[in-house]
User: Fold this.
Amino acid sequence: MSVPAGNLLAGLPPGVLPDELFTTLTESAASSGTVRIERILSTGQASPDGFWYDQDWDEFVLVVQGAARLQLEGEAERALGPGDWLMVPARRRHRVAWTDPAAPTVWLAVHIGEQKPPQARGQGEDA
Assistant:
């Protein structure tokens, strides 16, 4: 039986992207929903003004490379760099305030308890 494995930093496209790039690395079913692990690549993208993610599932986010600022509703922006992580509970509104436009920001996101498979995503639909 094959075990999923890879390098999170392999195959990063060069240059600035028009939108963030979401890549599902693995997904498995659990009694409480799915666990989906994805790599997100940001090159200066941020959530649109006034937009907040509001998800039905928990999300663990880790900045592997680069820099970003994440904001939870009612709190100041949090600066995140390599190794910084945050557990965002279900229904906790949050947004990406800034990502470094000069260098790629690579995120690892673990979605825990998601009830349905994701649809095609682009800017502002998942983080």
Summary: The radius of gyration is 14 Å. DSSP finds no helices and eight strands in the chain.
